[in-house]
Amino acid sequence: MFRHLLVPLDGSRLAETVLPAAAALAARMDAKVTLLHVVEAEAPKSVHGDRHLKAPAEAAGYLEEIVAWLAERGVSARPRVEEGRGDVAARIGHAGASMAADLIALCTHGGRGVRGLLFGRVAQQVLAAGRIPVFLLPPSALGREAVFQCRRMLVPLDGSTPSEGVLPAAAWLARAFQATLVLESVIPTLSTIRGVRGATARLMPRMGAAVLDEEASDAAVYLGEIVARLEEAGNVVEGVVERGEPVKVLEDAASRHRADVFAMATHGRAGVSAIWEGSIAARLLEKTGRPLLLVRITS
User: Is 263 in the same domain as 184?
Assistant: First the structure.
């Protein structure tokens, strides 16, 4: 499924956090790798404390050094330097489409922080411009010496067909790493249900509680059907139904289930809008510090 991995780099140590994951992904998936540096017309002198690569020749030399680093780890890569004007995020998205990349891996760092990048910058631009999935990693001071593991992948599902759009990519990646998929549905409690529905449920608490209990039972059946389907395809899968506020439950679940990676579907509009209300994808990335696979859906 993923055969061509695009890895944007700006020359900073933080951006290089993506490299161990890129090397592991390429090796496990037998994918080719393109390293991309976008030359900015009016770039600052430094980026995240490191010297900014403003000259094409300088950028090419840097990428060649990363090519050699990956080669030492058994991964073949090629460099690509993009020159021109325009928004860097949009140019990354355009480059990915033009070279038929099927996965873009990058580190979430920037002057406005993780949320600033997710809402309206590289990830959103890439997802909005096309259908290329994006693999986001939080930055680490270890840079290219950071450790990447994918033993257990947590996949939130809300019971809708659109949220299942992430499953083919997540299942494929999990098989490549021999990782366990943990499918999780979160049903609210009376105290955490929001909006008009929450107000109505709290006016009639017994009926509201009964409805939520029924939803939890339905979710267990729903997950059981998906688990059976994915197991038949060769995946190791667990289905879990929990109760509470979605982000808090999923944040805790990441530690409880020892998840290394999140995988979610997104509409890829108005920032990285998660299937669920409140931009869950962005909030999870901030709160858990775990890599996040985002797959765009259109419905």
Answer: yes
43-52: long-range contacts at Cβ-Cβ below 8 A with a sequence spacing of 24 or more?
47/10, 47/11, 47/12, 48/10, 48/12, 48/13, 48/14, 48/15, 48/109, 49/12, 49/13, 50/11, 50/12, 50/13, 51/11, 52/10, 52/11
Q: Can you tell me the mean pLDDT for 267-285? A: 53
What is the percent of the chain where pLDDT is above 90?
47
Decide which of 126, 145, 164 is a domain's last residue. Answer: 145
3-state secondary structure of 280: helix
> Of the candidates 145, 172, 196, which is a domain's last residue?
145
Helix-strand-coil split of the chain, %, nearest 5: 45, 20, 35
Phi–psi pair at 119, nearest 5 degrees: -90, 85
Q: Where are the beta strands (DSSP E) in the chain?
A: 4-8, 32-38, 46-47, 50-51, 77-82, 103-107, 134-137, 152-156, 180-187, 236-243, 261-266, 292-296
Separation of alpha carbons 280 and 250, rounded Å: 9
CB distance 223 to 154 below 8 Å: no
Residue 224 pLDDT grade (very low, low, confident, very high; cuts 50, 70, 90): very high
Q: What are phi and psi of 272, to 5 degrees?
A: -85, 90
- Note the pTM of the prediction, 2 decimals: 0.86
Per-residue confidence band for 50, with pLDDT thresholds at 50, 70 and 90: low
Q: Domain of residue 234: give its range.
A: 152-296
Instruction: Count CB-CB contacts under 10 A for residue 24.
Output: 18
**Phi, psi angles (nearest 5°) of residue 43:** -75, 150
Strands (E), 86-166: 103-107, 134-137, 152-156
* Interval 74-107: pLDDT, tens: 999 999 998 877 777 778 888 888 899 999 998 8
